[in-house]
Amino acid sequence: MLRKIILSVLGVALIIGAFIFANYLIDNKHKPKPVIPKVVKTVLVDTVKNTTIPIVIAANGNLTALQRVELYSEVQGLFKTGSKLFKPGQKFNRGETLIRIDASEYYASVQSAKSDLYNSIAAIMPDLRLDFPEVFQKWQTYLNGFDLNKTTPKLPEISGEKENYFITGRGIVSAFYNVKNLEQRLTKYRIIAPFSGILTEALVTEGTLVRNGQKLGEFINPSIYEMEVAVSKSFADVLKVGESVTLTSLDNTKTYEGKVSRVNGSIDATTQTITAYIAVEHSDLKEGMYLEANLNAEKVENAIEIDRNLLLDTQEIYVIKDSLLDVIAVRPAHFSNTSVVLRDVPNGTIILRKPVPGAYAGMHVKAASNSDKTSDSIQ
């Protein structure tokens, strides 16, 4: 009996507790939800002020010597020691001997041919005295001035048809040109510096047997260099010879002034670019040095330049109107790696200076105050 009473009391208590808990849940359901405060982002802004923007084309390349000679041998022989070593870095003045190849054997054959020419002319002198006394003296003067140790002088001018037949028939003219041909080849045993410069490559050393057609080295003029750059074909009509160009070293520590020396007349069909050549002179420059060039191509009137990340894919930019973001259509005039030039954006328009993550039209924003030095006019 007692057990039934206890169970009844517990049942009633459970029902009363459930009723109280249900009322508690109902009361909490009608409580107002907390209001989440609206976040207003502070953004960096600029005020548009249109002006003239110069278009600067960025390009880069390596320096090469404007005057360069690849040295090849046209004859065969032993490389003889000269007054200066034939080594990379060795300087030579214009007219100095770069390479001397032993020509003693060939020189003897040249002297033999010159002696034969002299003897041939001397053999016809008695006949000239008898048959052509009027031309005898000029040939006698030629013989008197003939020196085997000097370059063979030009033959006297033949004045008449009979004299021409006589001289040609004796083989004098053919012997003369044979000697001149040998003398011309003899000069190839000695390579002369065509300008003052420096050796950048030496592939042979003194005592080496040099063969015909063998490359011997490279010789450059280190006072003036040239850089080849590829520029978009859209600037083909604005690149002009003589335009000044600022060249910057890779570490941006030094700048050099160059000029456009040549512009290629054709466009590369593969890359659709045109090649321009920039000449530059400076004692610090070396061949192979990598430089960046800024070429002044043209000027865009009534334009501004902004960060390229501010331009949307839809050719629009964000502007601020009554603390809300909005978008306006723009006309890009030029793209660079980091910026874009826009035409005809209305003066006084307030635009973003830096991109805002998650930005959208209608977003509430607050322009940073001027005291923070974050707002300024853009041009």
From TrEMBL:
InterPro entries: MdtA-like_BSH. Keywords: Membrane, Transmembrane, Transmembrane helix. The keyword Membrane applies. One of its GO terms (molecular function) is efflux transmembrane transporter activity. Residues 69-216 form the Multidrug resistance protein MdtA-like barrel-sandwich hybrid domain. The chain crosses the membrane at residues 6-26. It holds the Pfam family BSH_RND. GO terms for cellular component: efflux pump complex. PANTHER family: HLYD FAMILY OF SECRETION PROTEINS, MULTIDRUG RESISTANCE PROTEIN MDTA. This is Membrane fusion protein of RND family multidrug efflux pump.
